[in-house]
Amino acid sequence: MMDSGMLHFANGSVPLKPDSMSRALELASDPWEVKVVQVLSSWWSSSDTMEMKTSGSTGSPRLIQHSKSAIEASALRTLQHFQLSPGARIALAMPAEFVGGMMMVIRAAVGSLELEVVEPKLMPSFSKNTMDFVALTPAQARAMCASKKHGQQMGQWKTLLLGGAPVQSDWLGGLSKELKVYESFGMTETISHFAVRQVAPILEDAFQCLPGIEVSSESNGALSVQLPNQSMVQTNDAVEIVNSRTFRWLGRLDDVINSGGVKVHPSAIAALLSPNIAEPFVVYGRPHEGLGEEVVLRIHAQEEPQDADQRRVELNHVFSTSLPRNHAPRSIEWKPMEKTRSGKWKSPR
Fold first, then answer.
1. 3-state DSSP: the chain helix, strand, coil percent, rounded to 5?
2. pTM for the full model?
3. What is the distance of C-alpha 272 from the center of its chain?
4. Sign of CA dihedral 309, 339, 185, 83
5. Rg of the chain taking only CA atoms, in angstroms
């Protein structure tokens, strides 16, 4: 095996090993590069644990302590599953302060990989076209796919891992058939993803657990995850269990809309609507005198567009042909939406 991988910043490169961190800090000219050095320094410190920050998508961000042995085991599961050997080239275009970006850095250190760090923006710019493994948010990948230049670059990648938000399938057809694209499923509590499903060129409908992970559901349909150390992580995700290593995600239990006694999963509705709505949007529940809650579609915009009436007609036609009865949004609105610090769109509360 190689003694170490390499860390590539805009201003230069250093070996991925502890005694190179002083030089790495000198090369780090931007905050996202400095954070990568901080993650590596923490990884190689004498402490047996590391702190990881939750994204804040289901509440205020908080810190969670994980043992380095558990973090290393998570990194190795990913390296083995995606067959990333020493010297493989990977890229980081997400903030290293959250678990998704942090684990990309640690995988590079554990696996002796070549790690390129770029600015975590909507349309990342990579210095090299050929990549063995890239992790992006769905919003980043969608934006890149819509650009001819960036889309051609993506065609030279081997594997793309999407995480941080549910993947809508409407744009995946524009990707190269040679690029394998996976949606990840995980959280800070499980040290990044513990399950993946391929979404292109093959579209799988269920998540497959990585080796050593098993899943089950509680009486309310909530997902429970058993990690290799036998510890259990209870989630608030509604799932359909296929077997102990396979499940279908339905949505968040705390997002379920009870409309006239019918339980509606907003994420499932959003997946069906995504091919028909180009802008960011969310489906959420709003109090209703007769139904308890009504299903509402909010499309991100500063104000209602001039063709709003026509679009309502078109969308209502989509509702009537694509959605089960009682699941269709009763109201369509164009209003601004907010993001969490990690870039996820918030549902109105």
1. 30, 35, 35
2. 0.82
3. 19
4. positive
5. 21
* Residue 194 one-letter amino acid: F
Residue with tokens 């590539």: 8
Cβ-based neighbours of 202, under 8 Å, separated by 6 or more: none
Closest CA to 163 of 189, 181, 150: 181
> What does the alpha-carbon distance between residue 194 and residue 213 come to, in Å, rounded to a whole number?
7
CA distance 277 to 313: 13
pLDDT digits (tens, 9 = 90+) for 149-185: 888 899 999 999 999 888 888 788 888 899 999 999 9
Q: Which residue has the tokens 């490169």?
A: 13
Mean per-residue pLDDT, 48-68: 81
Each domain of the chain, given as residue ranges in start order, spans 5-204, 207-253, 256-335
The CA-atom distances, in angstroms, between 35 and each of 39, 49, 206, 234, 348 are: 6, 18, 34, 30, 31
Rounded-to-integer distance, Cα 272 and Cα 181, Å: 20
Burial class (CB in 10 A: 0-12, 13-18, 19+), 11: exposed
Cα separation, 113 vs 85, whole angstroms: 7
- 88 φ/ψ angles, rounded to the nearest 5 degrees: -60, 145
Query: Whole-angstrom Cα distance, residue 333 to residue 75?
Result: 42
- Structure confidence by residue, pLDDT tens digits, 106-138: 999 999 999 999 999 989 999 888 999 999 998
Fold classified for 256-335: GMP Synthetase; Chain A, domain 3 (3.30.300)
Instruction: Give the DSSP H/E element, type plus range, for residue 46.
Output: none
CATH 3.40.50.12780 is the classification of domain 5-204 = yes
Cβ atoms within 10 Å, residue 325: 7
